[in-house]
């Protein structure tokens, strides 16, 4: 029997494009659907990945941080940065036409509460539902706030209409609200000031890494090898 997997926690919000960019290197590929079960690093490195749906608005408020898009020069940089990173990581990411309305007016509260319910009741579908919500907002410029939008994402991820409707009816329950709040507070306790945040638990040490570009450093901490956004073990199957 080999060594036990090291635990990684990925705190994310589908309102954060950088969270999606951090998410994909660990997840099943959606860009070669005929292969169905195509894995990247979570099946190459000896890790146990825990997905933690989090509310980015709560983290920004708790930390006193300001979204980079509110600063003109940073906003221009982010626009170009996200586009280039999407190309590099092979993630079909495109900014919404009305970026400020989507991010600052509509937000992601209901979507993140829905993902919280999915994690509680159907954790095996959390990865797929998260990706479908990211695809809606950051690839197809579609809504993620209305009930029908969330149901459509859940159904496309493989959930039945009945299952999805049942979970959606629970997004305003105290259990779900408290769970999302607790997860967001946990990220804050680790020192989060934005998302994504990856927390690596290694022996007696805990490391908090911010951003989607910390993969090489994470590999170093794990004693593993970073082989680019699409490692050879994956490329060989394409």
Quick recap:
The protein is α+β, with helices and mostly antiparallel strands and 238 residues long. It has eleven helices and four strands, in the order βαβααααααααββαα.
Task: Please write out the topology.
Elements lengths: L5 E7 L4 H7 L23 E7 L2 H8 L8 H18 L9 H8 L2 H13 L4 H13 L8 H10 L4 H8 L5 H16 L7 E6 L2 E6 L4 H8 L9 H4 L3
Parallel strand pairs: 1-2
Antiparallel strand pairs: 1-3, 3-4
- Given as residue ranges, the uncertain stretches (5+ residues, pLDDT < 50) are 28-39
Taken in chain order, the helices and strands follow as EHEHHHHHHHHEEHH
Average per-residue pLDDT, rounded, comes to 88
Which strands sit side by side, in order, in the main sheet? 2-1-3-4
Radius of gyration: 17 Å
Choose one word for the global shape. globular
Q: How far do the termini sit from each other?
A: 30 Å
Helix content: 40-55%
Percent of residues in beta strands: 5-15%
Report the count of strand segments.
4
Structural class: alpha+beta
Largest sheet: 4 strands, mixed
**Total of DSSP H or I helical runs spanning 4+ residues:** 11
Domain DSBA-like thioredoxin: 7-222
EC number: 2.5.1.18
GO biological process, one term: glutathione metabolic process
Family: Belongs to the GST superfamily. Kappa family.
Mind explaining what this structure looks like?
This protein is an alpha+beta fold. The protein is built from 11 helices and 4 strands, in the order E-H-E-H-H-H-H-H-H-H-H-E-E-H-H. The chain has a 4-stranded mixed β-sheet, sandwiched between helices. Helix 5 (109-121) packs antiparallel against helix 6. The longest helix is centred in the middle third of the chain and has 18 residues, at 72-89. Residues 28-39 have low confidence and may be disordered. Its EC number is 2.5.1.18. Keywords: Transferase. Belongs to the GST superfamily. Kappa family.
């Amino acid at each position: 029997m080999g060594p036990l997997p090291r635990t990684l926690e990925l705190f994310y919000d589908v309102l954060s494009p950088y969270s999606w960019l951090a998410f994909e290197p660990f997840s099943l590929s959606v860009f070669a659907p005929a292969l169905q079960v195509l894995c990247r690093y979570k099946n190459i490195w000896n890790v146990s990945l825990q997905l933690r749906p989090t509310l980015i608005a709560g983290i920004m408020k708790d930390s006193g941080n300001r979204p980079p898009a509110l600063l003109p020069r940073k906003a221009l940089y982010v626009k170009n940065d996200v586009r280039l990173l999407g190309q590099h990581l092979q993630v079909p990411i495109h900014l919404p036409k009305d970026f400020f309305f989507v991010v600052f007016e509509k937000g992601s509260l209901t979507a993140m509460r829905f993902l919280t319910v999915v994690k509680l009741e159907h954790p095996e579908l959390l990865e797929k539902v998260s990706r479908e919500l990211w695809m809606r907002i950051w690839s197809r410029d579609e809504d993620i706030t209305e009930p029908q939008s969330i149901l459509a994402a859940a159904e496309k991820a493989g959930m039945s209409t009945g299952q999805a409707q049942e979970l959606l009816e629970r997004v305003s329950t105290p259990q779900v609200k408290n769970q999302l709040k607790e997860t967001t507070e946990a990220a804050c306790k680790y020192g989060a000031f934005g998302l994504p945040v990856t927390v690596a638990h290694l022996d007696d040490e805990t490391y908090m890494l911010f951003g989607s570009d910390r993969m090489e450093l994470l590999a170093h901490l794990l004693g593993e090898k970073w082989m680019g956004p699409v490692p050879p073990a994956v490329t060989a199957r394409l």
